[in-house]
């Protein structure tokens, strides 16, 4: 099996893919291809929450739209566990590959790039251009592997804060994200309450339930049980693809609802004529999960999966900022807030969003809440047709009007 070069550990400063239709890294309507920002160089390493030092750190990011004169129209989009900086397609002379949030980000869309300057960065610890376990360790000139220090949601957000400094943005109009991206939104509200006007937290939680931690742990064990894992030091040999694929399959089960899986697959067979009566691939849902596992292995690093899921498990807003009290933790918030949950999300069910809303109301924070009826489970925030786009567009418009 061939070794995959997943990470692109750049240690130089910002790079822009110049195309004939692109001027200064930006197309006519303001969208830019992936760029890179490096900080925490020798002698200035970033001290992580666990106390380890890390540097240099490169952050991959993309932008859409134009920053206005007083730099007051910036919106930061935070991606979920396996996402990346490519939230939307680049609408230049050539249309790029689809983004993971194309229905939300773009000209005339909910996060309107004709109106807002939109930034999305790949999180610390990932493998899509940002420093993570597959990046080169400057001390050894080999990939970090298991030498990469443990990172937290706090560390991810502090790195995003450095990127905003680099872009000259003191205060964000809004920070938006779903799932693990929503955790980043909450961390932004607690850590940098004066650096944001509003926040939108979608399908997220202030801390993982025991069930969510359990699913993550089973997924991690699948990776670590792979014969190729080699304690995380596999970059010069075969990679733990089977373990990572199984981890993704477990994740996909939690992202969908029972109704969604029933609608999409039911008990339909690959070959309607007969059952194989073997340990094969009879049901369409089995084929779907295997396909998702194979696709994921092509684009993601097993160690990044381990580190980011662990960071999500560690996240606990009440413990970090309120000595166990969510009401006390939320008292730090200053942003105008929109919280959205989905009826069929059993990974982060609605009652968890209501707990957050209750804590904010007790602190008299300007917060709105909507539970959207959707059958697609946790992944509903990534899918069009739920009305989420109209909700976000209205909220952002209100923030601008009331500012």
Automatic annotation (TrEMBL):
The keyword Signal does not apply. It catalyses: L-homoserine + acetyl-CoA = O-acetyl-L-homoserine + CoA. Pfam families: Abhydrolase_1. Residues 1-33 are annotated as: Disordered. InterPro entries: AB_hydrolase_1, AB_hydrolase_fold, HAT_MetX-like. It comes from the Bacteria. Residues 73-382 form the AB hydrolase-1 domain. This is Homoserine O-acetyltransferase.
